[in-house]
Amino acid sequence: MQILQSVTTAVVLGLTLPSALSRVFNVEVGPDQAFHPPFISAARRGDSITFTFQFTPKISHSVTQSTFCQPCEHLQTRNSFDSGASGATFTVAVPDARPIYAFSSVGDDCHKGMVFAVNVDQEKYNEFQQRALDQLLVVWYASLLQ
Predict the structure, then answer these.
(1) Ordered structural domains, the chain, with CATH
(2) C-beta separation of 88 from 64 below 8 A
(3) May I ask which residue range the UniProt record assigns to the signal sequence (predicted)?
(4) Which helix (H) or strand (E) holds 107?
(5) Residue 117 has pLDDT above 70, yes or no
(6) Cα Rg of the chain (Å, integer)
(7) How far apart are CA 80 and CA 41, in angstroms?
(8) Please, what is the Cα angle at 48 between 100 and 64, to 5 degrees?
């Protein structure tokens, strides 16, 4: 009987412990065209990220999933996310410990550096943001060629 009780307790703890260890990261989405904080360095499976959009008349933002190599393009997969233009809040579940990249797809926010990343360090975030800024130059140069 003691063994059965111990096994039952272990199973119950195993089912409830992961959710008890889940964390919620809060990110403010700017009126200053920025995510605060701009990156999260250690999210894991089961965590969630809640984006809170700061209301400012005539200014909207989004949080749209992208890739490191194409920071200002919406990742078009079955599980990618896009909040659409500013709601009050938007929550993303962290599926695993791999990096997640996102940007604001409203207007030229991304080309001005409004990007966000998960499971990266400062150096990788800076490189990702620079890629977004550099894309503005590519878009501008391409418009000159037309």
Answers:
(1) 24-141 (2.60.40.420)
(2) no
(3) 1-22
(4) none
(5) yes
(6) 19
(7) 20
(8) 45
